[in-house]
Amino acid sequence: MQTEAAFSNTHALVLCGGQSSRMGTDKSMLVYHQKPQRYHVYDMLQPFCEKTFISCKHAGIHTIEHGYACLADDHRYTNSGPVAALLTAFEKFPGKNILLVGCDYPFLSTADLRQLASHCHGNRAAGFTNGKTYEPLLAWYPHTLYMELKERFQAGRQSMKHLLEETGAVKVIPENEQSLFSVDTKDKYEMAKDALKR
Question: Is 182 in contact with 105 (CB distance < 8 Å)?
Answer without folding.
Answer: yes
